[in-house]
Amino acid sequence: MNTATPLQIDLKEVESSQIHSIGYDAASKTLAIRFRNRSTGAPTTLYHYANVTPEDFVAFDEAESKGSHFGKHIKPYDVKFPFQKINESATA
Question: Can you give the pTM of this predicted structure?
């Protein structure tokens, strides 16, 4: 298990019912996604996805539906984009 301190990636809030905010670190090719609580819309768990190219991030960032793009192009490919849970919920 990776016990290193996770990257600190700046997040920007996005318009999505499923995703609260996203960020990207080009040097490490790491995509950060903080999800929303389905009931309240509050920010919840933060995940980092590895091996995300700048082109992958731009396509995600510019997608009309972030949740749909994530579900079609990132989530099903956990071998290509291995992920790590960074924390359970957003800090106040």
Answer: 0.90
